[in-house]
Amino acid sequence: MLLLTSWFFEKATGGGAYKFADLFKEKLGISLDKEDEMNCLVAGANFLLKAIRHEAFTHMEGQKEFVQIDQNDLFPYLLVNIGSGVSIIKVDGDGKFERVSGTNVGGGTYWGLGRLLTKCKSFDELLELSQRGDNRTIDMLVGDIYGGMDYNKIGLSASTIASSFGKAISDKKELDDYSPEDISLSLLRMISYNIGQIAYLNALRFGLKRIFFGGFFIRGHAYTMDTISFAVHFWSKGNAQAMFLRHEGFLGALGAFMSYETHGLDDLMVHHLVERFPMGAPYTGGSIHGPPLGDLNEKISWMEKFVLKGTEITAPVPMAPPGTTGLGGFEVPSSKGGTLRPDASALNVGVLHLVPTLEVFPLLADPKTYEPNTIDLADHSELEYWFTVLSEHLPDLVDKAVASEGGTDDAKRRGDAFARAFSAHLARLMEEPAAYGKLGLANLLELREECLREFQFVDAYRSIKQRENEASLAVLSDLLVEIDSMTEDESQQNAKAVEGADVILGMLPLARELLRRGTEVVLVANSLPALNDVTAMELPDIVAEAAKVILEGMGRAIHTNFNARFKCDALKE
Amino acid sequence: MDRREVESGRNSPESNQPAAQISRLAIDIGGSLIKMVYFSSGNDNSVDYREEKSPLAVSTALEGKLHFLKFETSKINDCLDFISSRKQLLGGWKHDDHPGSDEKFIKATGGGAYKFTNLFKEKLGITLDKEDEMDCLVTGANFLLKTVQREAFTYMDGHEEFVQIDHNDLYPYLLVNIGSGVSMIKVDGDGKYERVSGTSVGGGTFWGLGRLLTKCKSFDELLELSHRGNNRVLDMLVGDIYGGTDYSKMGLSSTTIASSFGKAISRDKELEDYKPEDISRSLLRLISNNIGQIAYLNALRFGLKRIFFGGFFIRGHAYTMDTISVAVHFWSKGEAKAMFLRHEGFLGALGAFASYEKRNLDGLLSN
């Protein structure tokens, strides 16, 4: 989000913009253009929900699930922005919204009260404490009042909180006798639950099924999201759903940025943006620290220094089971003890690359539900398998990449840096598969390609392909002569024989054959030596008329698009 | 008062006892407090120091007084001692299902009625005859609203105004009982109700958090402190964020609280640097405002215009009532009204008391 940070200074939002306008003018000579805060929030949320794939997700009992929003069926929704206080906004369209409610019990309350009660030095420290807390020492539960029994008649189980901090009325214990961990958890549950409840009551008022929660209070914190989700689920009896945004902390800033109308970003569609995760992503949890890295050399030396200083961070760390709340969402988090990371759920956000020339492939049967990935790495066994494959293959890939650049010392240094950066990505993803959003095999392979490109390996397989192409071209003419001599039946039977150099000895003869029969043939290839989705295909107008789609190659037809449906016949090879 | 429907499977306290049977006691054992209601015959003028409200005079076929007492649940022995000292007053009445037995019963409600069953049995030889908590709250509230004059009142800007309730136009209403936690009950008639919502941010939260933050020794002391406090010290107001100008476009004035305790995030000050008075005030506003808001949202859901607030948290405390009223007024844009009950803390205990005998109580206390 480096780009947006710099924009943020010019295009300010949040109450602080009003307060600090003079300061900015005086110290920096920059005048703040005070965009209306709500406007910014709504514009930011609409943009994210429309333009970024799998921006929204649900979070129940420690399980994240990405939701693809149909942009034609986005409105109306309820946007709950949890900053210091909480704003609850009903959104009916672009620029059409109303602040219908809010509450003064928000992130500022958690942090303010938490600081007074625990002497924590930072919000994150307070949040981290809650991971190890047990709220039962401070909260009065239904079971405490009913002597361990449920109050079934009105649907309250013994573990339901009857009164937050209700046990602290005991005159046997003072503040110092309670552990800061327990206090933090009680406070977090009180506030998250309250926000979830008020949000749901407002959604009910306007008949809204979808509630999106954003703002800095959440910080991708699993327990916070679980508690809010539980509250919404509990009060709505499962009819309403709490959803969260990956870029939750940037709503206001994004919206302020969006208000530069000249950029014409309003019309962006989901396929115009590609999110990429630069090498720093695994370390930073989404926020970029330190000076901006300008050139390749800086990147490499940063990588070298960082990995030398902090190898322990890049190694996969012990991970608690994904569930954080146990049954009912009201129990204590199970991810206690032995957890090195502050929170299993922290999400990384990448840099959004704008590619306005991209169009949706017109022959997809249903572009809305199109999912290129054949293999979803949310399946843990798949995940482990592919991580092993990629890790084991890494040294070989580095050798090939270095060779493709002539095997110079510079290439070797870049190769090392690439290996470190990609290992860090892998470690981060192993730790938190959803850290970069929904993860399919294609995304992972694309991440590897992107990482190679970041260290300026234009095409790692260039020299190998050159060799193969030369060999294939040498036999091409013989093959064509052979094919021409075949009858129709024979050529079909021998289709399987042409493998290996698939394009030259496979696709070219096929195209030639089709052309000879009077068919118009469009040959499409990627501009980058990578695994790109069909959405990236160009020449849409020409292709739209096609009667048949032939997808060829492992990247195009097996681990992506294998399950894709098209409007016309499709051959996947 | 109408006969309440008794749930199937429960012992019906159908009474065939003589009307002269006058000494009765019922308790509501909550998470923090035990509320007691008992009836004494006409010539008893003793007043116990634990009495929370002046006794309610009764003069129909029966002459006497209803007494309202409270004990802390953590000091339940005080309550046991009190009952033990009055045990002779309890003599004579027996459980309807066991007319031959000498076993003594007390009507009891609240979670503690379950939790402390054995304690009462062992120490006093008394069986707690349990009544459902929500049943009792509703029975108590209906009873007060229908039979006690000048029971309900509104409170705005320090001004108390009694509300005359038309018996035929009482239902439906929202009953918000603020004890340690908060129950919100939609009441459609005698024994006809539904617990529609609630919140864990209630009286226990005020007292529990308040104790941790201020070292106060009692709930009343904490409330007392709030009188002299200023919430602007700790609360982040809209004006603090927007540099003193109103954020009027959203209907927020500069004095609206944007974030309760939001100013406490400052690194310059620790807990000791804040005055207990200011802390208590901010806490009271946080909780009252929140309850008022959730109550209003629930009233809106069911189209209820009247919201009655009861429970021990309120304690006739002006600022508490004011904050709740303002919250309801603010969120409903003046459409809904918060009302309070003079015997707010005793709804459950009264309901349990009333369950002794529906027939004879009907009209008994209509004075």
From TrEMBL, chain A:
**Which reactions does this protein catalyse?**
(R)-pantothenate + ATP = (R)-4'-phosphopantothenate + ADP + H(+)
Q: Name one GO biological process term.
A: coenzyme A biosynthetic process
Q: Which Pfam families match?
A: ARMT1-like_dom, Fumble
Could you tell me which InterPro entries the record lists for this protein?
ARMT-1-like_metal-bd_sf (IPR036075), ARMT1-like_metal-bd (IPR002791), At2g17340_3_helix_bundle (IPR035073), ATPase_NBD (IPR043129), Type_II_PanK (IPR004567)
Q: Which UniProt keywords apply?
A: ATP-binding, Coenzyme A biosynthesis, Hydrolase, Kinase, Manganese, Metal-binding, Nickel, Nucleotide-binding, Transferase
Q: Name one GO cellular component term.
A: cytosol
Transmembrane ranges? none
Q: What is this protein called?
A: pantothenate kinase
Automatic annotation (TrEMBL), chain B:
Q: Which CDD domains match?
A: ASKHA_NBD_PanK-II_Pank4
Entry's Gene Ontology BP terms: coenzyme A biosynthetic process
Cite the EC number.
2.7.1.33
Sorted alphabetically, the keyword list is: ATP-binding, Coenzyme A biosynthesis, Kinase, Nucleotide-binding, Transferase
Superkingdom of this entry's organism? Eukaryota
Tell me the Pfam families matching this sequence.
Fumble
Pathway(s): Cofactor biosynthesis; coenzyme A biosynthesis; CoA from (R)-pantothenate: step 1/5
Gene Ontology cellular-component terms for this entry are:
cytosol; nucleus
Identify a single GO molecular function assigned to this protein: pantothenate kinase activity
Which reactions appear under catalytic activity for this entry? (R)-pantothenate + ATP = (R)-4'-phosphopantothenate + ADP + H(+)
**NCBIfam families reported for this sequence:** panK_eukar
Q: What name does the UniProt record give this protein?
A: pantothenate kinase
Provenance organism:
Turnera subulata
